[in-house]
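Q: Joint fold for the lines below.
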Amino acid sequence: MEIITGGVTAAKGFEASGYEGGIKYKNRKDMAMIYSQKPCVAAGVFTSNVVKAAPVLWDKEVVDNAPFAQAVIVNAGIANACTGKEGYGYCKETAEVAAKALHIPEHAVFVASTGVIGMQLPMDKISAGVVELAKLKKETMEAGTSAAEAIMTTDTKSKQVAVQVMIGGKKVTVGGMCKGSGMIHPNMCTMLGFVTSDVAIAKELLQEALSENVKDTFNMISVDGDTSTNDTLLVLTNGMAENTQITQKGADYDTFVEALNYVNTELAKKMAGDGEGATALFETKVIHAKDKEQAKTLAKSVICSSLTKAAIFGHDANWGRILCAMGYSGAMFDPEQVELFFQSKAGEIQIYKDGVATDYSEEEATKILSEPEVTVVVDMKAGDATATAWGCDLTYDYVKINADYRS
Amino acid sequence: MEIITGGVTAAKGFEASGYEGGIKYKNRKDMAMIYSQKPCVAAGVFTSNVVKAAPVLWDKEVVDNAPFAQAVIVNAGIANACTGKEGYGYCKETAEVAAKALHIPEHAVFVASTGVIGMQLPMDKISAGVVELAKLKKETMEAGTSAAEAIMTTDTKSKQVAVQVMIGGKKVTVGGMCKGSGMIHPNMCTMLGFVTSDVAIAKELLQEALSENVKDTFNMISVDGDTSTNDTLLVLTNGMAENTQITQKGADYDTFVEALNYVNTELAKKMAGDGEGATALFETKVIHAKDKEQAKTLAKSVICSSLTKAAIFGHDANWGRILCAMGYSGAMFDPEQVELFFQSKAGEIQIYKDGVATDYSEEEATKILSEPEVTVVVDMKAGDATATAWGCDLTYDYVKINADYRS
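A: Joint structure:
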């Protein structure tokens, strides 16, 4: 597997664009398009929130019933959630405008929105923006970056990843982009993520690969425990790599899943590390757990603990909060048997063993915790299962951003 | 029912004291004693965290097996959690010292600790403190207040409540104290709460009354979603009101439960409103829910949402976050049917109806949300069940307090 630069335009035949539609923000791009020159097999996973935004309902319809997909229209600023029938109508209208501009069927168009809940979209601006996006779309890396920038809300960085693998003697590319960075606690997929690939693969296998993979990638991150109404992760594959179509599990499928896993993991980590107000990516790796379920439950509980997150912000080796978060996770275990370690580029240190603190140096621990990426390793000493979850620290800026998000 | 001033010394025959033991803090009381002149029937509920602090293990033992209880020793500063066999030994030692000083059996002594996890107690200071507490104890209201002040950690106010009811022609008093204010998400009871009463009641009924009541009181509050390792709520009753002992359910039992419910509710609200860094008590009242379970799930999910809590801090009527938190709570409902209202001393306003925002005034909403106690009323329009949960806003100071708690 080769890691390359790029995002949604890295795979063959995919174009993208970003545009300043004036939806809500001023002086920045807030609309994006992804377009494939050929019809795509598509798969999607969506929020498990009972309150589903209108675009989620529209996209589920497309994934389930449309014969193919070929474009995605995204806007930032307004989430089109809690907007009733009027909001759903705007999804359809957006798809109609895009279909006309791109000469594709209306049901080949995905739509996605992110931003404030409860406001209606300014449909005239959206329509005008879609027409411009269609004119601007290009196959270049820059066009991919422009789209990745346009979908940002409180993100501080755009997020793109791409890799190449060989499948059946053909070079296959998988690339993606996503955005965070608040209301992030995906319970099916993430806020907004888009992955494109030129692989040729059957629709059922693509959906299975995606549904399985999000469990270990996007579903293992949390910024604030709030599962959004808009979570959407779409994968579009257009077959232009010309590999023999993957129609069953086996070596080719595994290679594609490996590439998809890399892209999803890196996008998920970028999202966690750029959580609202975050100064650090906070990783929790549970090893030697009894089973996978236990490992995942423990890892997620630790990265979700407000107290632990605040301690990470303070570079404070307050390991008791980690053990406490494990204790209320719902997983059963013997606290006396567990071992805890802190890890970062600055080193590794054991903190807890045999039910009590080790004789570690607070100074060294603080040094390790002062890096922009810190890891807690939890050794359960009970089995072979492993899981990793990613979050971020809890900071003044998280409060600042969210106390006054709408104004 | 008459509400009176006072706390753990309000009921007949209860004495208390507070003392500056120098456990960890400087220039403040950090040790407290509650003592009953007569042996007590006792009940307790404790943390459901798998990682249980040593005093929790000790107290469970006393509740389950001791013939009676007569005293409680509390220290603040060090939690005696994750301290292994050594920590449990210190509980026993504390009880021994208290038993000797008070001339009661060792197993009539409860111990409770709150503060930093992972440190060992300075046993010499604890022992010396217990001896002093025994000398200082008094029946006065001031003595109760002294104890309530001594158990504080990051609390900004001491917390006491007391009421009187008539049972079988006798005046019965129920009083209590508690402390918060971080790592508060009780899943069995609260951080530390102590209720005393002179009622005469059978042990099984007392435990049942307590276990049932915490479900609607202490288990309905959250400051930060972190269920502590030390959560303990004890009720001691010494029978000195001389009512005919309550040995079965009926009018007398109901009257006592009403008094207990008032004390527990008010203590729980005090704890939520004085959550770490909080500027407001944030109440969520779910009405007309399908069933009690749904009402409780929804109410708790709203008061636990970091995004909603931050919006309350900003006096921002960001109702979409409330609906979002209801949506990911796990409860099933039709979002289009729900109605939302904001309430406070400054007025009431409807915010959401028929799936969309009402035409409310942002200015008026902000005015309502600027009070120190704000309520969200969620009308499910689906049945008769009701539940209320209490939390607080999420502020800069929460982060500040917890990024640097140990130093």
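Q: Anything notable?
A: Chain A has a mean pLDDT of 91. The first helix of chain A runs from residue 54 to 65.
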